[in-house]
Amino acid sequence: DAMVIQNPRYQVTQFGKPVTLSCSQTLNHNVMYWYQQKSSQAPKLLFHYYDKDFNNEADTPDNFQSRRPNTSFCFLDIRSPGLGDAAMYLCATSRDSGRASEQFFGPGTRLTVL
Amino acid sequence: KQEVTQIPAALSVPEGENLVLNCSFTDSAIYNLQWFRQDPGKGLTSLLLIQSSQREQTSGRLNASLDKSSGRSTLYIAASQPGDSATYLCAVRRDTDKLIFGTGTRLQVFP
Hints:
The complex is a heterodimer. Chain A is mainly β. Chain A contains no helices and eleven strands. In chain A, the strands form two sheets. In chain A, strands 2, 4, 5, 6, 9, 10 and 11 form a seven-stranded mixed sheet that branches. In chain A, a hairpin with a 2-residue loop joins strand 5 and strand 6. Chain A starts with a strand and ends with a strand. By secondary structure, chain B is an all-beta fold. In chain B, the strands form two sheets. In chain B, strands 2, 4, 5, 9, 10 and 11 form a six-stranded mixed sheet that branches. Chain B has a five-stranded antiparallel sheet with strand order 1-3-8-7-6, with no helix packed on it. In chain B, a hairpin with a 5-residue loop joins strand 9 and strand 10. The termini of chain B are far apart. The A-B interface holds A 6, 31, 33, 40-45, 48, 50, 55, 57, 88, 90, 92, 94, 97, 99-108, 110 and B 4, 31-32, 34, 36, 41-46, 49, 51-52, 89, 91, 93, 97-99, 101-104.
C-alpha cells in the first residue's frame, strides 16, 4: 500500500544533542510537510517542500532545519533540542498544491528531550 | 488571520448514538476543509475532504457538511461505536499549502 512512513516512531534525545527525524513516502507526491504537535494542541506547520523548493514558516525557530534529498525522503533536523521541543512530529504529503489537494499523514515521531 | 475552533472540546456518548461535531473558521476564503481522526499517540488519518465548491461528503457512517459563507462545517457520525473513540480534528486550507487546524474534539463512545 502506498503510504507515508516515519522513523523512528519514538525518539529520545538529550538537551542540546542534535537529532534527525526521517520521513519517506511511496505516494510519489510532490509536496512534503513537517508539522509539530505539542500535547493537547493543534498541529502547527514548520515548513514544507514543493518538489525541491523549500518553504519555511515565518515563526519556525532557526533550530529546525529540513532536507529533501529526493522525492521520496524528507528529514527534520533539530540542531540543539530544548525541553520545549518535546512533541509529536508529523510528516505529511500531498500530490500537488492545487485546490483539490488532500494531505496524507504519517504515524508521527514522538520526541522526548531529557 | 484564519482561526479554527472546534466545539465541544470533549464528548462522551453511549454506543449507538448519532452525534455531530462542529468546526468553525473565521475566514471563508478557503480552498478545502479536511476532517481527520487521531488516536492517542498516533498520527492523523484523513476521513473526508470537502472542496470549497461542495456542500457535503459522505464515507460510510460519516457525513461532513460545509457552509463556507457562514464559516462552519459539521461531521456527523451515525450509530457511534466504541471504535470511534478518538480525537477528531478539522483543518482548512487557504491560498498556501498550509493547513490550519482546530484543537480537536475528543470523543469517547462507551459500550
